[in-house]
Amino acid sequence: MDNLLEIKNVFSGYNKKPVIKGISFEVAKGEFIGLIGPNGAGKSTLFKTLNGILPILKGEVYYQGADLTKMNLNERARRIAVLPQVFKVQFSYTVEEFIFLGRFPYSERFRCFSKKDETVVCKSIEMLSLQKIRNRKINELSGGELQKVLVAQAFVQEPELLLLDEPTSHLDIGGQVEIMNTLRDFNENGLTVISVLHDLNLASEYCNRLILLNNGELIKNGTPQEVMDYQLIEQVYKARVVIKENPYSNKPFLILYN
Amino acid sequence: MEIVGVKIKIFALIVILIIVFFLALKIGVVDLSWGQIYSAIISVIKGVNEESLCFSIIREIRLPRVLIALIVGAGLAVSGAIFQSVLRNPLAEPYTLGVSGGACLGVALVTVLGGYKLFFLLPLAGWLGAGMSVFIVYFLAVRRGFSTISLILSGIVINFLFSSFVLILFAFLKPSQVQSMILWLMGDLSGANFNSVKIGYVVIIPCLIISIVFTKRLDILGLGDEKAYSLGLDAKRNKKYFYLLASTITGTCIALSGVIGFVGLLIPHLMRRFFGIPNKMVLIASSLAGAVFLLLSDTIARSIISPQELPVGVITGLIGGVFFLLLLVLGREWKIG
Q1: How confident is residue A121, by pLDDT bands cut at 50, 70 and 90?
Q2: Mean pLDDT, to the nearest integer, of A192-205?
Q3: Which member of B224, B225, B231 has the closest CB to residue A105?
Q4: Which residues of chain B have pLDDT under 50?
């Protein structure tokens, strides 16, 4: 398989103090990867590092063989779309206007949006079933609707890689499944997805590979069956768990007990 | 939004602007007929000097004042819209970042030193003071990663600090000097002449054009740094550009007219209601509406207790205050942002 992303011995953090320490892994095209780990494990720090917000203190990140840190921001935005964990709505765009902003990496200075932009935005609205709310203000949407709109905006960037930081937080189980199904559909159509996930069962159910972090270090990198090991999970999360197999998907799932 | 609807609204604003422009030329202590105004304007355009009183009133007093009101109104409204996007705060205004504090300090210093006798020194001091606070706030914010919080905090700190210095300087002023300074601080367009008009248009018009050309970047900055980076925009660098651009506009406006509040807050807010959130139309409409608003306010200010004048900032403050009061009372229908 071709590697899309190579992360080699990366150290990164805030104010030159490393939070993630020496993390290495590779991401192949078409993978759906879940970044898991307890609070403070370094998931969001790694995410912000890949997004270019935090500097790499040591190590390298390659995207299709090219140094990601040296890639032009616009070029990068055409390849990698990012959904941050927190998005505060300050200006009440309509859903459609907001999704159009995702076409910024393709925009020309003196031109309004092109026919291609309109086509991509319409397709994205259809794919995420946002037709009914396309003219609503985004500050009037529910958490689930807003998350879908954010995914739609990322989708119109036409990326090869989608990075998400806890896309299902604050959503009810219906909303969680809807977002994850959408991501799986995108993934099946060739989009590579890396998502930070708190819910281990969701991660196990939807991702074909899990990367477990703790204290800024990579603890385990493998299939859900390999990573969802009760001893490993108990050791990292300091909680007692039972791991079973979902009879429908044959994926491992976790039950907490006291 | 429908393009036809937007065009009609912009056309309506232009028509209103033209009507207010001519009304402002007509209204004043000396009553002029439309014919006199028309012939005076034609003479001004042709560069012909006439001896008549009517020509002198238009050429020396009303036209420069009207032109300054237009450009300052447009400038303050657009710089307000820019600051609101850059700071991601619909309640930011051109003076949020300490610009007015610096301008006041500059003017107070010159007044204390006796420089108020030279007509050009007060605006120059205002501009230099505004520039000084812009750069102090800029460097303080840069040390903290040029985040929105660091900008606002630095702005508030500098504004308080400079305002305190101004109050100290007040102790050294004569009562008449205090009065003239207070007038200037509340906004005063009475000193307008064709030299100040030239400065205003040469500095502010290019800034307005640049901000409208790069308006998409402003939209992206309004989404926050993290989202901006993911969409391919270097948020930090672009925030600096827009900050300096809007500060240049604000500093120039202060130098030309003193400190006039509420235009940069009220107008972009209203225009977002009528033109939606994307900044392109908000900036274009704000420049037109800001010009109309300030010109109208100034016309009211100089005619309501004629032959005396009120500072224009009093009128913009009253209108803006009543508007936001209504906003608070009406609440749900008029959300901010």
Answers
A1: very high
A2: 94
A3: B231
A4: 336-337
Quick: pLDDT tens for B146-183. 777 888 888 889 988 998 998 888 888 888 778 777 87
For residue B196, the domain's CATH number is 1.10.3470.10
> CA-nearest residue of chain A to B91?
A90
pLDDT band at A35 (very low <50, low <70, confident <90, very high): very high
Q: Is residue A63 part of a domain?
A: yes
Three-class HEC string of B25-60? HHCCCCCCCHHHHHHHHHHHHHCCCCCCHHHHHHHH
User: What is the domain count for chain A?
Assistant: 1
Distance CA B75, CA B246 (A): 8
What mean pLDDT is predicted for residues A72-92? 86
Q: Is residue B89 assigned to a domain?
A: yes
**How far is the alpha carbon of A72 from chain B, nearest alpha carbon, in Å?**
8
CB B251 within 8 A of CB B194: no
Say what the pLDDT of residue B47 is.
82
Q: Are A216 and A41 in contact (CB under 8 A)?
A: yes
The boundaries of the domain holding residue B155 are 69-333
| Any domain includes A240 | yes
DSSP letters of B51-120? -SHHHHIIIIIIHHHHHHHHHHHHHHHHHHHHHHHHTT-TT--TTTTSHHHHHHHHHHHHHHTTGGGSTT
Q: What pLDDT, on the 0 to 100 scale, is given for residue B309?
A: 87
What are the tens digits of pLDDT across the range B61-102?
999 999 999 999 999 999 999 989 888 888 788 777 788 888
Identify the closest residue of chain B to A140 by CA–CA distance.
Answer: B335
Q: How far apart are CA A243 and CA A233, in angstroms?
A: 9
Q: What is the CATH number of the domain that holds A58?
A: 3.40.50.300
How many Å apart are CA B142 and CA B240, to the nearest integer? Answer: 9
Q: In which element (H, E) is residue B123 found?
A: helix B121-143
Is A73–B232 a contact, with Cβ atoms under 8 angstroms apart?
yes
**Cis (ω within 30 of 0) for the bond into A38?**
no
Q: Which of B324, B312, B290 is nearest to B82 (CA)?
A: B290
